[in-house]
Amino acid sequence: xxxxxxxxxxxxxxxxxxxxxxxxxxxxxxxxxxxxxxxxxxxxxxxxxxxxxxxxxxxxxxxxxxxxxxxxxxxxxxxxxxxxxxxxxxxxxxxxxxxxxxxxxxxxxxxxxxxxxxxxxxxxxxxxxxxxxxxxxxxxxxxxxxxxxxxxxxxxxxxxxxxxxxxxxxxxxxxxxxxxxxxxxxxxxxxxxxxxxxxxxxxxxxxxxxxxxxxxxxxxxxxxxxxxxx
Length: 230
Hints:
By secondary structure, this protein is an alpha+beta fold. The protein is built from 3 helices and 12 strands.
């Protein structure tokens, strides 16, 4: 696609200069005999930001060409540079930009600084439509049956253990006991047994209870703690 823009730009320049200059896409420092217009592709930029999920916006960039005129007769070079400048400013598809190039860049080109301007030309490519299958049926949400399990974490002499961590092994759901050792946690009602992992006073325990034992009354889980007061 860029080569198509190159060709159209060259044809447009040729009409402005009446064929009196060669048109080159080399950078300005390339030494060639005779008079020529250098139209050097200097940079490329994004033109628009595509919104997330937008599929119908074409891919679009802007090509920035550095334009200079070379001639043994500097007055003639300035004349045609001016003709090109005002013709570009009058062109509906072009945008003219004046940029100051550093001395290091001109040194890299291998030429003293030259009068110049930049022509910005947009280029777009249609996006290929993504083959996304259509949704033919409305989504179906399946709700699982939940039961709320309550229980007490107790140590020796039925002493409640606060801030104990209670984890359901299957679902990784976590709850903590209050100052009375009471916890409340949600579990899958379709399971046959509930597996608990309990962390209290720096110790870990695993307990398993059949569902029928915990549906209606709070559990009382006694832990054999080695050092309850620690």
